């Protein structure tokens, strides 16, 4: 699997990226190597998305896999993967929000302190991407463990009333393909993001509000990148979302957009 992915990434590096500058000046310069336009519409402009390949060292990656697996085992016990989310979006998954991983003060032991140290680096990278003029407050880390290729996430837009406009995650174990579709033009306006292990990906604003996202099951032809099937086994992501902070009388951005239409 990894040799196949390595070959795919190597070929991607020699493929001309679309002539589109990421909207945020601090977006990682390699972002467009991991983006494939699949619809007839051009890529979103602004493209408020960034990916940092090899963000984690291999040791950091392996430590996070171990600590995430331990945490989920304590929370779920002998219970297997869940077959259906309350809103039927996710299949074959375990998920949890871990408040103990927010800061060094909330870590319960040295192992959790090491996790917190890596997640602090994640938040620093996301803050740098957003820029100093856009300070955010981060919520607790959210874990999502997908069983194997016989699992996936259906197309959906997150409940943005419950969090802010920014989300990012580190990718563990297995590569995945994330498909983005415009909520008003899903048949023509869509693109893919290849998220390899050890990468950090980030999305905000128009990509978060105007586009659904999904991770197809691997028997779906959409779980491919630039014409090649991407095999996926177990896949874990540790996600960070900014807190929704509103002034008195202010509507969430999503609700404000709806009321103005």
Automatic annotation (TrEMBL):
It comes from Polyrhizophydium stewartii. This is Alpha-ketoglutarate-dependent dioxygenase AlkB-like domain-containing protein. InterPro entries: AlkB-like_sf, ALKBH7-like.
């Amino acid at each position: 699997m990894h040799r196949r992915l390595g070959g795919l990434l190597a070929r991607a590096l020699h493929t001309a990226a679309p002539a589109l500058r990421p909207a945020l000046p601090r977006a990682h310069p390699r972002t467009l190597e991991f983006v494939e336009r699949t619809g007839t519409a051009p890529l979103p402009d602004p493209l408020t998305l960034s990916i940092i390949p090899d963000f984690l060292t291999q040791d950091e990656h392996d430590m996070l896999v171990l600590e995430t697996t331990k945490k989920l085992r304590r929370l779920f016990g002998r219970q297997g993967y869940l077959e259906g989310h309350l809103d039927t979006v996710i299949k074959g998954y375990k998920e949890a929000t871990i408040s103990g991983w927010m800061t060094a003060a909330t870590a319960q032991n040295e192992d959790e302190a090491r996790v917190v140290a890596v997640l602090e680096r994640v938040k620093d990278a996301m803050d740098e991407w957003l820029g100093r003029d856009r300070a955010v407050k981060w919520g607790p880390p959210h874990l999502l463990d997908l069983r194997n290729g016989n699992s996936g996430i259906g197309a959906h837009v997150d409940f943005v009333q419950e969090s802010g406009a920014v989300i990012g995650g580190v990718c563990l174990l297995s590569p995945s393909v994330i498909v983005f579709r415009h909520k008003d033009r899903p048949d023509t306006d869509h693109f893919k993001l290849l998220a390899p292990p050890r990468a950090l990906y980030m999305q905000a604003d128009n990509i978060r509000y105007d586009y659904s996202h999904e991770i197809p099951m691997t028997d779906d032809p959409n779980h491919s990148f630039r014409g090649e099937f991407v095999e996926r086994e177990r896949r874990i992501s540790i996600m960070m979302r900014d807190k929704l902070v509103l002034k008195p009388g202010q509507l969430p951005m999503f609700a404000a957009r709806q009321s103005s239409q």
